[in-house]
Amino acid sequence: KVNLTINGIQVSVPKDYTVLMAAREAGIDIPTLCYLKDINEIAACRVCVVEVDIKGVPMRNLPTSCVLQVQDGMNVKTNTAKVRNAVRMNVELILANHNRECLTCLRNGTCELQKLCDELGIKDIEFEGEKRESALDNLSHSIIRDGSKCILCGRCVSTCRDVQGIGILDFTRRGFNTEVAPAFDYSMKDVPCVYCGQCIQACPVAALRERTNIDDVWEAIDDPEKFVVVQTAPGVRASLGEEFGLPVGTDVTGKMVASLKRLGFDKVFDTNFSADLTILEEGTELLNRFKNGGKLPMITSCSPGWIRYCEINYPDFLDNLSTCKSPQQMFGAIVKSYYAQKEGIDPKKIVSVSVMPCTSKKTEANRPEMEVDGLRDVDFSITTRELGDMIKQARINFTKLPDEHPDSILGEYTGAGVIFGATGGVMEAALRTVADILTGKDLENVEYQNVRGIEGVKEASVVLPIEGKDTEIMVAVAHGTANAAKVLNAVRNGEKQYHFIEVMACPGGCVHGGGQSHVSAKARLDVNPKSKRADALYELDRSLPLRKSHKNPEVIKLYEEFLKEPNSHLSHKLLHTHYNK
Ligand code: HC1
Ligand code: SF4
């Protein structure tokens, strides 16, 4: 332990602590901006400076507390005139080069810079001057990069490079003209970005943000000729409440459905339904690969960021990918075929909207192959945050809404569909169904704890009878593209053998997707949105009467009335796809 004094308080902390951490433990709040715990600790913004002497000898200048290691006999002061003036000046210098159109900014209200200015009492800026020239890149379907808002904190750079292992964004140019951008100023549209939006989650301001489709959705709702249906992803219900001040990871399924009905959608359905459908298609595909000597390991295909990552970086694994479209796309294909037929609606009049915790889903919905007979599976995909904005625009009092149920016939779901949103959930849902099919039993144990949790790579094995022989099925779960790379490299060089792998592009899975509510760097010191939101989904799963996808009555009916059986000819036409090298 190391003993030091902070603002006159004696503190005793482990020796690998920084002054910032030690202060926190002593209940002293040092402001930060570029700091993102464990991801970006680079002292770039100099907002966390403190005054320090060690055994009476003052340290030169004002050190940054986020990287300053504690030492015995340190005497730290966080609230002297010298510190206050320096912090204010550092923030004012950032502001001088920042597009301060706060009132019309997407991050108005969730901006960490705005909050910091308020906390520091900054009311005017002394250093008004020239601003650097900067680009607005809105060419991709998913992500907008707005250089005029960038404060060069580097949080997105570290996240994309170190957490995701991709490295699309970096500091470019020099001095006053420094900017964060892809190499050679390429558009995000033209680089190997997977649109996971983890950089948006890291951005404290609006320099990186989703390309919104709110106006497209309003326009469809307002058009009396259109029949507008909406599906909501599993992960959305675990985060949407945060837009309205509810604690991180509050399950708001009922209020979410009620709000969508009030927004004017003609039908409110649930992606959980098509998650169940995916399990039947994907589980059957896996069993067929076992039986027919097909390519193994089979790898899940529902995360579009992961698919793009695989296409770009591991094309030798494309035959390992399940041919199943994602639940988002399956839903769209079913709505414009089976549902339209059954309800006597012209499928050309149907506008299919999805609400997703994801920014990559926008790009997935726009992939050229994601249509059947000229009808797009999904016309518009919006994020959890965009839905929150629409609810606010409609002046719906979200927290006062009653709990309502999704519409029939594509709104019924089981617990297996719900847990898709958490890392390991697709694997667990698949095992529930595959185990029942192979044993011919209705197995009671449905919880596969080994594939749960936020460890980067998880492994498990299950013994099941294949062709009458007890076989140990080896599975792995990876979340975050850097972890996916680890697993694929191990498979490629023969170190590991698996039968089935789940990959989600985002760390934590969809619950921590790029489209979920922003949780500030400061709030993340107290709550882990990945595990909190996953807990909400597992809790919801436990509360449901049906927890296996093959028990979903509406999915059973869909096969009886329309698709006939999993992997049928019609299933292949509507629900399966191919990948591009
Ligand atoms: Fe996901 Fe999926 S689980 S990919 O994380 O397979 O986005 O939530 O909707 O499509 O169901 C996301 C979540 C989501 C699909 C499903
Ligand atoms: Fe990197 Fe993902 Fe952001 Fe693209 S969307 S720049 S891959 S973090």
Properties at a glance:
single chain, 581 residues, alpha/beta, Ubiquitin-like (UB roll), Alpha-Beta Plaits, Rossmann fold, 3 domains, five-stranded mixed sheet, four-stranded parallel sheet, 18 helices, 34% helix, binds 2 iron/2 sulfur/5 carbonyl/2 water inorganic cluster, NADH dehydrogenase (ubiquinone) activity
Task: Itemize the secondary structure elements and their pairings.
Blueprint: E1 2-6, E2 9-13, H1 19-25, E3 51-54, E4 57-58, E5 74-77, H2 81-96, H3 112-120, E6 136-137, E7 143-146, H4 155-163, E8 170-172, E9 179-181, H5 198-202, E10 208-210, H6 214-222, E11 227-232, H7 253-263, E12 267-268, H8 271-292, E13 298-299, H9 304-313, H10 327-343, E14 350-356, H11 360-365, E15 371-372, E16 375-376, E17 380-383, H12 384-393, H13 415-418, H14 425-439, E18 457-466, E19 469-479, H15 481-492, E20 500-504, H16 529-543, H17 553-563, H18 569-575
Parallel strand pairs: 1-5, 11-12, 11-14, 13-20, 14-17, 19-20
Antiparallel strand pairs: 1-2, 3-4, 3-5, 6-7, 7-10, 8-9, 15-16, 18-19
Bound molecules: 2 iron/2 sulfur/5 carbonyl/2 water inorganic cluster and iron/sulfur cluster.
Iron/sulfur cluster binds at residues 143, 159-160, 164, 166, 168-169, 193-199.
Detailed description of the structure:
- The radius of gyration is 25 Å and the shape is globular.
- The model has no long low-confidence stretch (mean pLDDT 96).
- The protein starts with a strand and ends in a 6-residue tail after the last helix.
- By secondary structure, it is α/β, with parallel strands linked by helices.
- Helix 8 packs across helix 10.
- The chain is built from 18 helices and 20 strands.
- It binds 2 iron/2 sulfur/5 carbonyl/2 water inorganic cluster and iron/sulfur cluster (SF4).
- Iron/sulfur cluster is lined by residues 143, 159-160, 164, 166, 168-169, 193-199.
